[in-house]
Amino acid sequence: MNNTNDDHEDVDGDARDGEGGQDAEHGRAKGDEGGGHGQADGAHGHDHGADGDEHHHELPFDVQVLEFRRGKDEFFRSADQSPIPHELRHHYPGLQYFAPDERFRIEGLRLAPDPDPTNTTEIVTSDGKTREAWRVGTLEFDVPGGHAQLAAYAFEPGPVEELFIPFRDATSGTDTYGAGRYLDLEPEDDGSYALDFNIAYNPWCAYAPQYSCPLPPRENWLTFPIPAGEKAPLEG
């Protein structure tokens, strides 16, 4: 269950994540040209557990997901790079999630490359600016509720393996964060991708206004619900 390092969120400073997850490009602090989705390097990890831990991968799917979530909650409460304001951090009740559902993990997907590898697009950010991104290709999939495809992006040119997939769905603005959610994918050993909505996560601008987060382009607005992954943050 891959969830790669993010690099998509900007903050007024460096928004590098910490503890096994995103760098901070999907949510940099405003003014930071490094950083990523506004997550911590470790909050999301490349798997729902430690990479290379064979025992972990023998665990039932729902246990893997729940262990991953416990680690991310701990990061949000204790890491210096947490997006939760410092005065609230240590009493943070934890992220809100849908129950693990293996039907929303689709394996063996092959990326359909964009015909023009130099094709760029300007992705609007939460603070009304834009960021240049390369449209890498698309992944086509079926889940309960519908059949669709999602475009994958990168924030640097050239051959890439790590994919950034911002998306909205029919839960956005109700059960989930209104601006949409993110997925980060790395290829499996055979070059395919696993699209696991159980690790779909909120951009860091959902937790703190200083982050500038890429918004999902309209082509990645799904018409049906994806009741998997992170829910909208708790108020207050």
Brief summary:
The chain is α+β, with helices and mostly antiparallel strands and 236 residues long. The protein has helices at 54-57, 61-78, 86-89; strands at 9-10, 24-25, 27-29, 105-109, 112-113, 120-124, 130-143, 146-154, 163-167, 181-185, 193-196, 211-212.
Feature tags:
alpha+beta, 4-stranded antiparallel beta sheet, 3-stranded mixed beta sheet, 3 helices, 11% helix
Can you tell me about this structure?
The chain has helices at 54-57, 61-78, 86-89, and strands at 9-10, 24-25, 27-29, 105-109, 112-113, 120-124, 130-143, 146-154, 163-167, 181-185, 193-196, 211-212. By secondary structure, the chain is an alpha+beta fold. Strands 5, 6, 7 and 8 form a 4-stranded antiparallel beta sheet that branches. The chain has a 3-stranded mixed beta sheet with strand order 1-3-12, with no helix packed on it. Strands 4-11 form a two-stranded antiparallel sheet. The radius of gyration is 16 Å and the shape is globular.
Percent strand: 15-25%
Mean residue pLDDT? 82
Helix content range of the residues, please?
A: 10-25%
Note the overall shape. globular
Name the structural class: alpha+beta
What sequence of helices (H) and strands (E) makes up the elements? EEEHHHEEEEEEEEE
Give me the number of helical elements: 3
Radius of gyration: 16 Å
What can be said about the biggest beta sheet? 4 strands, antiparallel
